[in-house]
Amino acid sequence: xxxxxxxxxxxxxxxxxxxxxxxxxxxxxxxxxxxxxxxxxxxxxxxxxxxxxxxxxxxxxxxxxxxxxxxxxxxxxxxxxxxxxxxxxxxxxxxxxxxxxxxxxxxxxxxxxxxxxxxxxxxxxxxxxxxxxxxxxxxxxxxxxxxxxxxxxxxxxxxxxxxxxxxxxxxxxxxxxxxxxxxxxxxxxxxxxxxxxxxxxxxxxxxxxxxxxxxxxxxxxxxxxxxxxxxxxxxxxxxxxxxxxxxxxxxxxxxxxxxxxxxxxxxxxxxxxxxxxxxxxxxxxxxxxxxxxxxxxxxxxxxxxxxxxxxxxxxxxxxxx
Length: 321
Ligand SMILES: Nc1ncnc2c1ncn2[C@@H]1O[C@H](COP(=O)(O)OP(=O)(O)O)[C@@H](O)[C@H]1O
Ligand SMILES: N[C@@H](CCOP(=O)(O)O)C(=O)O
Known about the structure:
Pfam families: APH. InterPro entries: Aminoglycoside_PTrfase, Homoserine_kinase_II, Kinase-like_dom_sf, Pseudomonas-type_ThrB. The chain is 42% helix and 15% strand. By secondary structure, it is an alpha+beta fold. The chain folds into two domains: 9-103, Phosphorylase Kinase, domain 1, CATH 3.30.200; 115-318, Alpha-Beta Complex (Aminoglycoside 3'-phosphotransferase, Chain: A, domain 2). The strands form three sheets. It has a five-stranded antiparallel beta sheet with strand order 1-2-3-5-4, covered by helices on one side. Strands 6-9 form a two-stranded antiparallel ribbon. It has a two-stranded antiparallel sheet with strand order 7-8. The longest helix has 27 residues, at 260-286. It is globular and about 60 Å long. The protein binds adenosine-5'-diphosphate (ADP) and ligand LJ64HWYM.
């Protein structure tokens, strides 16, 4: 359960009294997620999600996330909408943390995505990229792109080999390859940057909503595709599922064709994406805050994916080109 910050009913009732949401009926910490503290609220006005922003979220970025979710909704993307209080302000402070109430999205995430789910995800990702194209009032640099990886390694490197022998050397080798070769000049725009299966809702088999925009930023669009290939197209035994990869990429390209340079860069982007999640998971694995209710994600899942990418020869190994 990701609850780092406890909220008392009294604190929550006082916070809610500044909104037009009626009285609090019930609330509980949410069992999924690792980044922020999330609570499901039931008020007289319905169900809502309360998020208290934790460690990785820079409060200065919150207006970007809020503005983006509002913008995407105007472009037809089904995503949580920030709820504003009586003074028209979305962002507040609760239990000492920046806090936001957002609308509750109906639907369930899939644990074992099928090729059809991957195709739908690919189309939704392209739709998100197109909808974000005219979100130009604010911008956010990706703090977890290639320039952010070495600082993560410096936090975790000394203890990396306690998680897997040889891991520190392997990460150092990867940085030595990826830092000087990271693609430049590819199409950029707003990316989600964490569109894992747990952040995508389906209703009756149809993709019905996207959540968790708190890594969203301006970066290479194809890097978002690479993140999704990692998150959606590997099997639990570590094998890349080419059928799912093809489906995801075809779904994406039906909405937004990748250009030649993006396709050529895909193997390197996928390799970088796997290193990014290996590193954040490693840091989290080694630094679980005492008293937090959270189950950290397994960094070694991304070590296995990284090994696949190191051996991949061409975009065809991913299902395109
Ligand atoms: N707007 C929402 N509607 C419905 N459920 C939500 C919503 N936001 C979050 N959740 C639930 O809370 C869980 C954790 O949210 P998430 O944003 O992924 O957390 P984190 O910020 O820790 O990554 C999700 O997996 C989902 O079950
Ligand atoms: N998706 C990331 C971490 C964030 O996960 P979330 O469940 O809180 O959305 C990972 O898997 O490492």
